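Quick start: what a row looks like.
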Amino acid sequence: MLRRKIIRVITHTVSFITLVTISVFMNATAGYAWNIITIDSETHNDNTNLALGSYSDDGAWKWRYWPTCNNTGYRYTSVEVNPLRHGIAFWRVQIPKTGFYKIETSYFATENRTFDADYAVYVNTTTTAATNKTAKPVFATVINQIGNDVTWKTLGTYCLKKNDISMIVLDNNDDSGSASTDAGRWTYMGEEYSSKICGGESKIVPIVDMLLRD
């Protein structure tokens, strides 16, 4: 009798642990579990599951080891691949829940990097449209990559809806210097940010509106 109880307890415990493990794995792989996701050029290279994040590039890119980079490596446009050192890179992720997301990118800065790396942030845009510039980004800027070691830059905070495809693009196709890619990072800031609600109205009541009230 005691033996049966012990076996029953062990069986239930193993079943519970298995269910919890499966649940955690399914949530993580579905993309619903993260508040911060970092997408790097090694771990996520050509990943087809956008819920987990994907990195891809095209052009004169080479990989080099560096311990302070995400996953100990970075990519850069090299004259050994193409004398013009032209290339374009993409970081993409499917948004797990509606809210504001701070979007950042990192690169390995050196003294021979380009001083005008073109970055853009897109929503629900294909890589082809971004490459051909037939789609309009929600944000675009130029970053000077000259410096030393890994550098993070913030590309803004945006309201994104669940299942949106958010994309960072680094376009080095019109530069003469080498560009570097390392990682893209999305940080969930909540449904409300800077007194605005994602998809809604501001919670701050305008002064004029307050004066007109009884």
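That is the whole record. The longest strand covers residues 149-160. Helices lie at 2-30, 127-132, 207-212.
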